[in-house]
Design brief:
single chain; 128 residues; alpha+beta; two-stranded antiparallel ribbon; 2 strands; 9% strand; extended; ThiF family adenylyltransferase; nucleotidyltransferase activity; transferase; nucleotidyltransferase
Length: 128
């Protein structure tokens, strides 16, 4: 859509992605963990054969109220990435069933053991 409105857009994008290095400040650990968890959940949903809720959308969250917004993202028909031809070369199981990944997985009975010795009462350890 942007290319249709602004013919110079591809040139601007190419300039922004030129050889100069950008310094991106490190993000907050909580934000990174949240994003990684969401991405993993969506990837597992896809691998299980379900359509993730992020399909065709961009998720945005605004602070401080943590308001979530899903904005639709449509593929531009002239883009060479192939997203506009969705579904043409997808790999679907031959039986048409869903794939099982880690759904329903739990710890093995053989591996259950104490990770650390019991601590005396009143002591604690911070996990970071």
């Amino acid at each position: 859509d942007r290319t249709d409105r602004d013919p110079a857009w591809p040139r601007l994008v190419a300039q922004w992605r030129s050889g100069r290095q950008r310094r991106v400040p490190p993000c907050d650990l909580t934000l990174a963990a949240t994003v990684a968890g969401c991405a993993a959940a969506h990837a597992l949903a896809f691998l299980d054969g379900r359509t993730p809720s992020s399909t065709g959308a961009r998720w945005e969250v605004s602070l401080p109220g943590l308001r979530w917004h899903a904005r639709p993202v449509r593929a531009h028909p002239a883009c060479p990435c192939g997203a506009a031809g969705k579904g043409k070369q997808e790999h679907i199981p031959e039986d048409g069933g869903r794939r099982a990944t880690m759904a329903g997985q739990g710890p093995s009975a053989e591996v259950r053991h104490e990770a650390e010795p019991a601590r005396p009462a009143g002591t604690w350890r911070a996990h970071v």
